[in-house]
Amino acid sequence: MAKIITARKKRPLVSIVILNWNGLEDTLNCLDSVRSLKYKEYEVVIVDNGSSGSLKALEKRVSKNIQLVKNPVNMGFAGGEISALPYCHGDYILLLNNDALIHPDALDVCLKTFESDEKIAVVGSRSYSIDEDGQKTHNFYSFQRIDPVTADVLSYKVDPGSIIDAPTVSGSGVMIKKTAIDAYGYFDERFFAYYEETDLFARYLRAGLRVVYNPAFIIWHKDGASTRNKRFMYYYLMLKNQFIFAYKNFDKSLLKDFKKTYFRNFRRSLWVYLKDRSKTEAIHKARVRSTVWNLIYFLGTIRSRRKTFSISPNFSYSSVLFNEQPLAYSIVIDATNSNSEETLKSIKKILALKSVPSEIVIVSRIPIEKIPKSIFTTIQVVIDKQNFKLSPYDFGFMCTNTEFLLFRTVEEIHNADSEKMSSDLVRAYRSIVANDAAIVVDKAKTIFKSDLAFVNGKNVHLVLIRKNDLVNYLDIHKTINSLNTSVIGGFINWCVMDCKPVARITVSTKNLSLNIKTPESHYTVLNNSARWHVKKTLRVLHLSRIISKLRKTISRHQLTTSDELPSTAHSILPSTKAPIKNFPVIINTRDRFDPLVTLVKWLESAEQKKIAFVDNDSTNPELLHLFAHTPYQVIPLGRNGLHKAPWESFAVRFLTKGLPYILSDPDIIPTEQTPKDTIKHLYSLLQKFPDYDKVGVALKIDDIPEHYQMKQAVIDWESRFWDSSLLLKKDVFAADLDTTLAIYRGGTEWFLSPSIRVAGKYAMHHEPWYQDLNNPTDDMLYYRIRASNDVSTWTKGNLPKHHIRALKKEGLL
What we know:
By secondary structure, the chain is of the alpha/beta class. The protein is 37% helix and 19% strand.
């Protein structure tokens, strides 16, 4: 029987393009990672963009499948990639940053993805970060979103774990089909660097092709290595190219909104720039000069816009930006009076909107099970344990992570018309961003039922709040320790008094009442029949401000002339007879479970029952289980706010209500000798030394085990806090204190000094100093993998660079 000879299917060739610009060491490391690829049908094109001192080393790497393109000058990312194109013979082109390392399976993953659908033109990667010490981390960014008003491009730090269509993906590691380039072109060299891939992928989407993200396509990347320490260059390129990108791709209505934001920011930067050029920050100089460049070459941008739109005149890029990605706002659902079934229905209704929010935060008093999963929208349940007097507004304000907020009850969401709610929220989002409004309201009672008290006794209905403006309002009004509808009403008044834009949506018109500049005209728009009420109210408010200032002045004078309290005291302490166990205890947590359990047990034995955990996006399963079953309050921030999180999230303010409070890291644990009256002793010292606002425990350094690799570094760093010149009395040192266990005066923000450290039998252990870092516990290992270099100092076996710099500055190294 004759053999049937079948032709072997030709394996596609992949062209890998790596740009080098004065980054020789990174480029060589990148080439080494490429050699480890399992798929061997590839060629490498190295482009040297006019580097100094790199060519000789790169020429040594030239071989049969490695070519070197020598550009005499730096042509940027776009120009460098274009110069490599004639040397690429592959069916696919892989763009790989020189400061990136690629996973051995990457080419196989990408090719399999392309084979799944012929319309896929682009496959983007999951990019894990490399820290400043060159270590691979578990922190990653995935695909990207494009703001439909500002044109800002933001990277997600989560993904669905599967292939997904995306508006754009990062160019640091991306594969492009060569036929798409042949048909619809390549990079626009005017971009130089930044936005060039976003512009290219928008063109492919317009042509009906797909841009997808595959989390199995993995690289490790030093983000921003080429422009690190070059802030002006970074801002200049970003702002210049943002303008070009928006003009080339945005639909007419979106472009109108973009121009408002872009030129408003330009005017502000120009004002700063003209006042004092020598002291102007890099971002303002960059914005002025990039805008001038864009105006000079504006005709070229218009021509490129026409060419782009000619690909598919009926294509709606706004539909992609509004319907295929979330909008950057958070909906806070008050489910405190609803059952689990009703709450789940409201969540599903929001997820069914055409334009979904980036985040949903549900505030409930019961656990909500079977929360639906969403690719785009982060869903978080916050359980109010009722240990503290917190409102749903408080929880929503602390635990949301977008710039714009919407507060609603479950009932209000049920009664809302989905289609209208979706369209109105889109309009509200566009209006608040484009017009720099502090708040968007609806007077016509068309979206929701809930009312907010307004200054003239009438009601308006909240649609969106700008969180930063609300933060500014709270920073000014220090006596507000909780949020509710009355406070939001006062916030609206404040916006009006300070002439901040307030936008309104109505049913009768498609246009929005926007960007009103005077207090009176604000009220005229919101309530045309109440002009005289406004004038009267403004006079009363102005008078009340004067009276308030006089009261503060008198109060301050009384404090400074009193023998009982000095002027440095932030608040009057309760009497010594006040029950210490009623003071709030706040523990700032991030993935540490073992030491936290030990600390909490000790606090309980010391009769501290009012405990709250401010959680910085922990994922440790044991810790999450503890949070789910603890009787204490958990504030899940949904972000890593680092060591200042309890204050910057307003958790301290809302939880303590101006009273003294106790705050600690989770890895401060008592010794066997630590007395149960430690908190009482710290509090007595806080009363005894009124010039100090924080009294905490010292950290022991005399019993650190030899197996701890950084023992000497700890002793060098900590010894200065034990200096005898700092003694106020025996075992009481006037020494800086960060977030070690301490009691604070009410109303205090984060600070290092004036502080007191209490030693002797009251000193405690810093748990990482008692670990063997070469053989850490599972709990420590989990934390170390996800820890931030910005605050994690003693857990990795070597000091991070920022800490070494601090030691040298102190003269300790």
